[in-house]
C-alpha cells in the first residue's frame, strides 16, 4: 500500500491504492508511519518525496474500513496523528507531489509537505463538513497559518473544490506543473534538496514549526542554539570553504 523507491538521496513514497483513490486505512497509515521512521533513521535518506498512484493523491479516510460499526474516531486518529507528527518533525525536507484529488485527510497530509507541487489537473477539498466531521490530521492548525483565518473558515465551512491553480494562488502549493511532468519535477526538486546541507535544512524546519508557539525573545534564543548546532556540522565547514574558493559547495549531509 505504500511503495518505497530510492533515487540517490531521495526516498520516494507512493500511496498505492489507486483503485480506491488511495483512500486511507489504518493499515496504510501504519505502513506510511513505518516508512517515515525509516527515513528518519537512515542517514542515506536526505530528502523525502510523497505522492499517490493513479488519478488521486488521496481521497481521505476510507469510510468502508469501518463497515457498519460506528467508528471510534478518537482512537483511530492516533494513527493519523503520529503520521502528521512524523512528517512535521522529520528533520529532512519533505516534497509532496499532488497528482490528483486531495480531499479530507488526504489534503491534510499533502499540506504537511515542506514544498508542494501539484499536477495541473489536481484538486483540493477539505471535505470534512460534507460528512458532518471537523477537520483533523492537523488541518485546523496548519490551514489558517497558510491562508489566514478568514480563508480557512471559508474552505472548512463551505468545502469548495479548488483547482491546482486556485491552490497555488492561495499558497497551498508552491508550483503547478503539467501532469506528465509532475514526478520528474518533484524528483528534481527533492534531489536538489538532498544535495543540500541536510542538518541545516532540518534545523530550519524545526525553527519554523517552533515559531508558531514562541515569543520573539524565545525564537531568538532558539535560533542561537540551533545556529550553534549547525555551525558544528561538516557541511558548514564545506560551505565556508566553497565560498572562499568561489565554487559550488559539495554538501555531504553531515
TrEMBL record:
CDD domains named among the record's database cross-references: crotonase-like
Superkingdom assignment: Bacteria
TM segment ranges: none
Alphabetical list of InterPro entries matching this protein: ClpP/crotonase-like_dom_sf, Enoyl-CoA_hydra/iso, Enoyl-CoA_hydra_C
GO molecular function list: catalytic activity
Gene3D superfamilies: 2-enoyl-CoA Hydratase, Chain A, domain 1, Lyase 2-enoyl-coa Hydratase, Chain A, domain 2
Family statement drawn from the similarity comment of this UniProt entry: Belongs to the enoyl-CoA hydratase/isomerase family.
Name of this chain's protein: Enoyl-CoA hydratase/carnithine racemase
